[in-house]
Amino acid sequence: MISFSPNFVRYGKLLDAWSEQKPPPKTSEEASKFVIDNLKKHQKADVEGLLAFYGLPLPQTLGHPSANSQTSLPQGVKYELRTLPVDVKAIPDGDTIIVYVSTTEPWESSNIPKDIRVAAAQRSKACADKNYTMADALQKKITISGYRVLNVQNQEILARKYRIRLRGIDAPESSMPYGKEAKEELVKLVSGKFLRVLVYGEDRYGRCVGDVYCNGKFVQEIMLKKGLAWHYSAYDQRIELATWEKEARAKREGLWALPNPEKPWEWRKDKREGR
């Protein structure tokens, strides 16, 4: 049975239509067609974003054998995140994103610390009582614990914070040539969007290392093809990433227009060693 989180209600009567559908859609393809049919007046990008957020087939793939939803995650994936819309201020550079995941998601709802549940409930009551001093103090406690109460489309949502390091690429640092352009491109791609993140592990800084998808597009692919990131081959040997970098080099896209672009990992090493 396909099910949706409360974020789904932002499309008005769609949830009511879903509950009244007899029988309700049971497969991913049926769910996609139902959403598309009931959101004909909405912008195509918004509809496709919603489908991608829930891992449902996009319009152009419906009816094809390859569109069948996966029953298991790709090999090596530890878990999957479905994020809330990304804040433009949560993108520090071209290969890192800070995201929030609603605690209504099944994985998150079963792992919320008890004190955070209590603090969130107390904060809600404090806001209702217009005790904003207490509400702010409780928000601070929640934030320190790695959670946050966010206002998403006039709905307050308790969410967990994750720092995501885009797997397999290394963008120029902010003070390097094309560092600013790399960040601007990533902002353009994901700001205000729901993301699907396949997490493979954590790096030494505690960031989740994962593949990021936005509206059905693979973010790392776009960054590489536009010449705004290097293939981080020391940590990821995927042939497709190497191919996308090679194509960008051949076209002299982005940083490849420079006569001798410096590798970000070598730049960081020089900085650490004081060179």
From TrEMBL:
<keyword id="KW-0378">Hydrolase</keyword>
<feature type="domain" description="TNase-like">
    <location>
        <begin position="82"/>
        <end position="258"/>
    </location>
</feature>
<dbReference type="InterPro" id="IPR016071">
    <property type="entry name" value="Staphylococal_nuclease_OB-fold"/>
</dbReference>
<dbReference type="GO" id="GO:0005737">
    <property type="term" value="C:cytoplasm"/>
</dbReference>
<dbReference type="Pfam" id="PF00565">
    <property type="entry name" value="SNase"/>
</dbReference>
<dbReference type="GO" id="GO:0004519">
    <property type="term" value="F:endonuclease activity"/>
</dbReference>
<dbReference type="GO" id="GO:0016787">
    <property type="term" value="F:hydrolase activity"/>
</dbReference>
<dbReference type="InterPro" id="IPR035437">
    <property type="entry name" value="SNase_OB-fold_sf"/>
</dbReference>
<dbReference type="InterPro" id="IPR002071">
    <property type="entry name" value="Thermonucl_AS"/>
</dbReference>
<keyword id="KW-0540">Nuclease</keyword>
<dbReference type="GO" id="GO:0003676">
    <property type="term" value="F:nucleic acid binding"/>
</dbReference>
<keyword id="KW-0255">Endonuclease</keyword>
<protein>
    <submittedName>
        <fullName>Staphylococcal-like nuclease CAN1</fullName>
    </submittedName>
</protein>
